[in-house]
Amino acid sequence: xxxxxxxxxxxxxxLKSKLSATQQQLSxxxxxxxxxxxSEDAIVLELSQVEAQLLSTRQKLAETKSRLNRTRDExxxxxxxxxxxxxxxxxxxxxxxxxxxxxxxQGPVRYASVLLGAHTMGELVSRAQLIRSIVKYESxxxxxxxxxxxxxxxxxxxxxxxxxxxxxxxLALGGQQDKEAQLVQKRRGVLAEAQAxxxxxxxxxxxxxxDSQEIAKRLQALEGMPLPGTFAGKLIQxxxxxIVSPFGMRxxxxxxxxxxxxxxxxxxxxxxxxxxxxxxxxxFSGVMRxxxxxxxxxxxxxxxxxxxxxxxxxxxxxxxxxxxxxIARVGATGLATGPHLHFEVRRNGTPVNPIGGGx
Length: 359
Description:
Helices cover 59% and strands 18% of the residues. The chain is α+β, with helices and mostly antiparallel strands.
C-alpha cells in the first residue's frame, strides 16, 4: 500500500482532472441547451403560425356554411314562388279555356245577342268595348303570369348555380381544414419531442453542475498538496470482450441526439470482472449521473481512467490498486441499453482515444 499522503496527492490530481472534464462537458451541454431552446422556439413559432392558419380556415368555412344555408333558404322561397305562379297560371288558363269553350259552343250567336240586345247606339258601343276588354284582360293576365313565372325560373337557375359554387368552396375549405389540423397535430408532436429533449439536456446540465460543485468541495479539502509525477506505463484491456462502440461522435441511443462518445464500449455479460488498466489510486467510486456506478483511477501525470455502468464496485476511494486487479463488475447502470463496460482515458481532463493510449 502507498503512504496516505501520496494517495491524497494522486486523488487531488484525479479530482482536478475530473473537474476540468466536467467543466468542459458542462460547457458543451450548455451549448446543446441553447441550441435546443432555439429549436424549440422555432417550432413554437411555426406551430403558432399553423394554428393561426387553421383558425382562419375554420372561420372561412363557417362563413361559407352560413352563406350556403342562406342561399338554400332563398332556393326554398323561390321554389315556393314558382309553385304559386304555376298554380296562378293554371287557374287563369283554365278560366280562359272554359270561356273559350263556352263561346265555341254558343258561337257568334251569343256575342250577337249581347250586341243586338242594346237599345241605343251608345249601349251597343259600350257592350262591344266590354267584350273586347274582357278578352284583353284575360290575355294580359296570362301574359303577366307567364312573364313572372319566367323571371322566377331565371332566379331559381341563378340560385342553383350559386349554391353549387358555394358547396364546392365548402368542400375545398373542409379538405384544407383537415390537412391543416393534421399539420397542427404533427407540429405539436414535434414540439413535445423537442421539449422532452430540452428537458433531458437540462437534467444533464443540472447533474453536471452538481458534479462540478461536489468535485470542487473535494478539492478544497485537498488544497495545498503537491502534484504526482508523470505516467509512463502501458494500459491493458480492462475487460474480456470485444469493442462494440468506438471512441468519437455518435447518435446516443437513449438521449436521441449526436454527442461525443468519450470512450469505448466493451461488450460483456453482467458480472464479468473489470480490472485496472494500469496501477493507480481510486479517485472516485460511486454513482455519477448517466455513467451509473463508476470507478475513476488516477495514474499520475494527468492520466486517469474511468470504468462506467458497473453492477458492483469493488474498489474504494483513496485505495491504491495494481494493474490487473479486479475493481468492479460489468453491469447496465445509468444511461445504458444493456450490460457493457464504458471505458475512458483522459489526459489532463480531456478524453483521448483509449485505443491510441496503449491498448
